Amino acid sequence: MLKELLPFLVTAPALGYAAFTLHCGRSFFAGQRPLLEHTPPVSILKPVKGVDGDSFENFASFCRQEYPKFQIVFAAASPSDPVIPIIERLIAAFPQVDISLVVDGAIHGANYKVCNLMHAYAKAKYPLLIVCDSDIRVDSQYLRRVCAPFADPQVGLVTSLYRSSSVKGAGCAIEALGFCSEMVPNVMAAVKLEGLSFALGASMALRREALERIGGFEALVDYLADDYQLGNMIHKSGFRLELSPHFVESVMRGDEEVSEVMARQLRWGRTMRVSRPGGYLASGITLPFPAALLALLISGFTASGWLAAALLYLVRSAVSVSYSRALVRDRLLPRWLWLLPLRDALAFAVWALSLLGNRVRWRGELFQLDKGGTIRPLRKRGQATF
Fold it and tell me: I need a labelling partner for 367 at 20 to 30 A (CA). Which of 148, 215, 357, 376 fits?
């Protein structure tokens, strides 16, 4: 009898966690209050390097904001960066928007994105700041939504969830599925269990006062997970963090291979391992793929094992479809549901590999990841690797 029950026992943590994340997500989105009309002037800081998927339209979405007063400051490290002509075209297309470009290759630490932010910050005019990744696209109400919570003086940072509603091929779909079936549910669980103590790099709005209290962007310049550290430092400084229920869009390239997606996922995994070591290690017992595989192995691939694995993936699929259709609203599922087991297998591989190494590749550069989340470049910037 115990042998027949054992497969169900080993899948119970993953099955229970899936159901719990659905409860957390529904509670979070159902509990949202109407936005206040609070529209302080804001400076949008955009560190850029290279060209992302449809960069012009991504940038243009920030220029089309229905908002009283804002500026956009782009910061690049090299005058030959291919993104610069796109920014120049943007400036010509939106003469009514206050847009500026800073080109400065000075290096202040290992995180070159933060170096760009430091250069952009010098041009920021307003007491409210927004940092957004270059591959993010927003709707015309974005600024109103992320700035409204600052009507409460205790709020120091507002961060946004992200999704990818349009994918071009299986490689993109595998990564996009990670947002609605893994990232967003995990954030919902974290917020429910311990409150929000970190930020998501896709979109971060913050008070200048909060940034200066933690020592400015300089405090982040040697960390890989600058977004996580920014939110965590502001949280520890005494300000409250808010999670916006309004999603921003992560626009993916359509020509990426699964290997490229895996490399990026591995960087994120190792980043989270050093940022939240205990939680990241414990998250292994909630992963569905190893639980289903273990159920099959300990049962000897008998009926009880297959039934336990099938029950787990029935619940897993139902939760993922619920997130995709009702909460995240990315419209990915059920169309791409057949990729979910593969996505989960890759997630387990990334989790396991992230425990074994301390090197990460980011924007063509190779870094050593040290304890606490700081990084060291393993070669000079721009030097070729063979």
Answer: 215
